[in-house]
Amino acid sequence: MLDSELVTIPLPVGSTAIVYCEGQFGEQDGKTANGLVRHSEKYEILSVIDSTQRGTDAGMFLDGVANGIPVLADLAEAIAHAGRVPDYLICGVAPADGLLSPAQRVVLLDGIARGMHIINGLHEFLNDDLEFAAASLLAGVTITDVRRPKEKRDLHLFSGRIFDVPCPRIAVLGTDGAIGKRTTATLLVQSLNARGIKAVLIGTGQTTLIQGGKYGVALDALVPQFCSGEVENQVVAAYEGENPDIIIVEGQGALSHPAYLTSAHILRGSRPAGIIVQHAPKRTVLGDFPMVMMPTVASEIALIEAFADTRVIGVTINHEHMSDDEIGAAIDEYELDFGLPATDPLTRPLDRLVEMVLLAFPTLEASRASSAR
User: Fold this and answer.
1) In 280-344, at which residue ranges do the beta strands (DSSP E only) sit?
2) Are 352 and 195 in contact (CB under 8 A)?
3) Distance (Å, rounded) from C-alpha 95 to C-alpha 239?
4) 3-state DSSP assignment of residue 135
5) pLDDT of 207-220, one tens digit each?
6) Considering only CA atoms, which of 10, 55, 11, 17 is closest in space to residue 36?
7) Mean of pLDDT values over 113-129
8) What is the separation, in whole angstroms, between the first and last Cα of the chain?
9) Side-chain half-sphere exposure of 178, counting CA atoms within 13 A
10) pLDDT tens, position by position, 167-226
11) Whole-angstrom distance, CA of residue 343 vs CA of residue 330
12) Of 17, 70, 73, 349, which residue is least crowded by CB atoms under 10 Å?
């Protein structure tokens, strides 16, 4: 079961969007576009721009299930397909440096000139760019820099309030960046809720915020001093606002990753009782850092459990470049080697992902049965 089969939330008026992802759709640096095609509570995604994949259905291309979102060659074609100028142009690329190329600037400026609001998830804040600021003012549109943090006076240090949150937290971590942690976390939350177990997602990256996540923060845009406290604050806010049975925290990067510190702050700030580790068995080097070999699942589990007072409760697979037989063999191997449940959330029934959680926290099922009576 994929996202399209789960309950959808009505979209607000004025939310039609085109996602720009030239040359990167389906790739690691296209993860924002990939995520929006799979799930968006805030925007109605009309099309994706990537001339290298023109003519394909975005859902079929990503997951083998058509979703009616076409991949088109350029902005002009996307607007023609929509029949009018959509409300938003979303920058769906997410390069490691978080900066726009000259060609990407041209497309976003074209969108502004046509009257489209811009949603920007990069580290480069377009409201601070004189050319973009002038263009948006002239066209009467807005630019939303999703990664722009709050003023420092409004940020939170770690306070210890997390110790007063009684419901279990699970963090979906991984062995690399752009490996599917957000997708797994989103599917897990949807599936738990469908099972009658109230779950809330805490986003920690720009894509979840663009998708419409209610609770979250773009961790990699913060001064490190506030990262753990901001994660803690979002978890506390979710508990107080929703009274959930369980909270799922999206991971970022990897604890072992030489370029990113965000996993450490997620572990410190959310104090998860359980961890799901996402791994791509066919990936031999880190996605944006090919000079570094991928860690093994065993080494990542050992590092996580040594670093934090928690335990790994399961392994999920990113099936890139894998046949179905290879996926099945990998699942069997991890379950045998680690004595943990394993699954691929995108090719195997989502009940397996839910059962992974219920095996670790059996009282969740009991609570659901009690509240249903």
Assistant:
1) 285-286, 289-293, 312-317, 342-343
2) no
3) 33
4) helix
5) 999 999 999 999 99
6) 17
7) 96
8) 28
9) 22
10) 999 999 999 999 999 999 999 999 999 999 999 999 999 999 999 999 999 999 999 999
11) 9
12) 349
Q: 280 pLDDT exceeds 70?
A: yes
- CA angle (327, 329, 330) in 5-degree steps: 65
Residues 6+ apart with CB under 8 A from 292: 258, 285, 286
3 state DSSP class of 237: helix
Say how far apart CA 185 and CA 74 lie, in whole Å: 32
SS3 348: coil
Q: How far apart are CA 4 and CA 325, in angstroms?
A: 25
Q: H or E element: which one contains 363?
A: helix 363-372
* Res. 13 pLDDT band, cuts 50 70 90: low
Spatial distance between the Cα atoms of 352 and 331, rounded to a whole number of angstroms: 11
Round to whole Å and give the CA distance between 294 and 280.
9
Spell out a b/e string for 105-131, using b for 16 or more CB atoms within 10 Å of the CB, else e: bebbbbbbeeebbbbbbbbbbbeebee
> What residues are paired with 202 via a beta bridge?
215, 249
Q: Per-residue pLDDT for 291 more than 60?
A: yes
- Per DSSP, the three-state class of 136 is helix
Sign of the alpha-carbon torsion through 35, 39, 41, 44: positive
Give dist(CA 228, CA 158) in Å, integer: 6
Which pair of structure tokens corresponds to residue 134? 């002038």
The helix-helix angle for 181-194 and 351-360 (nearest 10°) equals 80
> Could you tell me which residues come within 8 angstroms of residue 147 by beta carbon, excluding any fewer than 6 positions away?
98, 120, 121, 122, 123, 125, 206, 218, 220, 221
Judge whether residue 73 has pLDDT over 50.
Answer: yes
pLDDT in tens, 264-275: 999 999 999 999
Token code pair at residue 259: 């370029």
Is the per-residue pLDDT at 371 higher than 80? no
Nearest CA among 101, 94, 55 for reference residue 74? 55
Please report where in the chains the tokens 């973009």 appear, as a residue: 132
Provide the CB-side half-sphere exposure for 103 (13 A, CA): 8
